Amino acid sequence: MHFISEQHHDDGVLEREFALGEIPGTLWTPGSAPAPLILMAHNNGLPRRDPRLVGRARYSAAQGYAVATIDAPGCGDRPGSASADQARAELRRAMQAGEPVDEIFESLVGPLVENALPEWRTALGALLSLPEIGGPVGYSGWTALGIRLAVAEPRIAAAGFFAGGYVPRAQREEARQVTIPLLFLLQWDDEGNPRQRALDLFDAFGSREKTMHANLGGHVGTPWFELEDGGRFYDRHLKS
Amino acid sequence: MHFISEQHHDDGVLEREFALGEIPGTLWTPGSAPAPLILMAHNNGLPRRDPRLVGRARYSAAQGYAVATIDAPGCGDRPGSASADQARAELRRAMQAGEPVDEIFESLVGPLVENALPEWRTALGALLSLPEIGGPVGYSGWTALGIRLAVAEPRIAAAGFFAGGYVPRAQREEARQVTIPLLFLLQWDDEGNPRQRALDLFDAFGSREKTMHANLGGHVGTPWFELEDGGRFYDRHLKS
Fold first, then answer.
1. With contact defined as beta carbons under 8 Å apart, do A213 and B184 qualify?
2. CA-based nearest distance B232→chain A, Å
3. Which pLDDT tens digit goes with each residue over A58-115?
4. What's this model's pTM, rounded to 2 decimal places?
5. Facing B216 at nearest CB: one of A208, A214, A228
6. Global ipTM
7. DSSP assignment of B74-93, as one string?
């Protein structure tokens, strides 16, 4: 893991860009060390530089967490793939035409998740070797990748999932094997994500402690107080 | 409003029994005054002395709220009614026999709500005339009564509803007229309360700001942290 640049913020948070082989990432760390770690990813492989993700990451870092994110293969700063570009174009076309999109999402998000998993595990190992990062480890954001990680990776102790993103059938099946504490965040009127599918997914998780927070509004309308609620969820599971 | 007894608790909360005509009630007030008020009631007219309600009331009072509750006509310390006793017996019989219970619930809870409404409004007026109580006013607990109150009573500014209780058809219809901020608390596996009906009710509320917290577990399994989450909901709407 090589640090490429660093930026000191007024709230004591240190923000560093890093490279891990060909994987680009960002790490935010608080003034206090060692800090518990939160891995943070956006649904459907959205870029790690997205302002909403950066905002959440800096909030959590200011609350005493190390937060790390990487770009998935073909996403963000990384070279795109012809097949993913084609799937995204086909997705736009089908949505505009009002055609079913599930199979296109399967062909796009399924491989994204499978390809992202080993890189996130590699990144997790490298991050935990840093002296400024301790356990335990939480996860935040992209539901499909989070399910995959929570099942494959025993070091993940708690996870917050955002319901607004396509979850491939394989991960919907796998949801029953997720047993860590969960906070599941649902936008009640999310335009592109069927509500019933999110409710079914919440029902399917195998966790004994799972909480859903549903708020009125569309995909990007999550109210600000959910950031604080999420913080307290991680505090209960990662700081006690 | 006549105070009958008082008890000082170690956390600075003063607990007083009162009578308002024939209505018996309890008022908890914090050390600081004037305090915002939360009206608190249990679903289906359960007694105001129920330990779960008392626990919630004392928690909120310790957080700086005046909390008041009264027994509904025919409930708690008040003389029972022959028709309600009969409906409750019929309910037990039908439940044991595995028969439908909706119509029995309608005949029991419908009149409970209608009879309780004017008494809660009378109590609200009397409470707001006390110097130790200021506005604004919140509501907590019994969903059906809360819907009725939120629609009829403009002084209610925010409400937390517990989904686990029968909501008569009239209040399910009225839910669209509720426009104040809501926190709706659902136990995902509540034995006696169909989940879909609760989800439909959440969907129906007319409020622009409404949040549902759903947790795994049965009717009485609400996790402790929801008490704190509820406190922050009231803080946002009653203290700002």
1. no
2. 9
3. 999 999 999 999 998 888 899 988 888 898 999 999 999 999 999 999 999 999 999 9
4. 0.94
5. A208
6. 0.91
7. TSTTSPP-HHHHHHHHHHHH
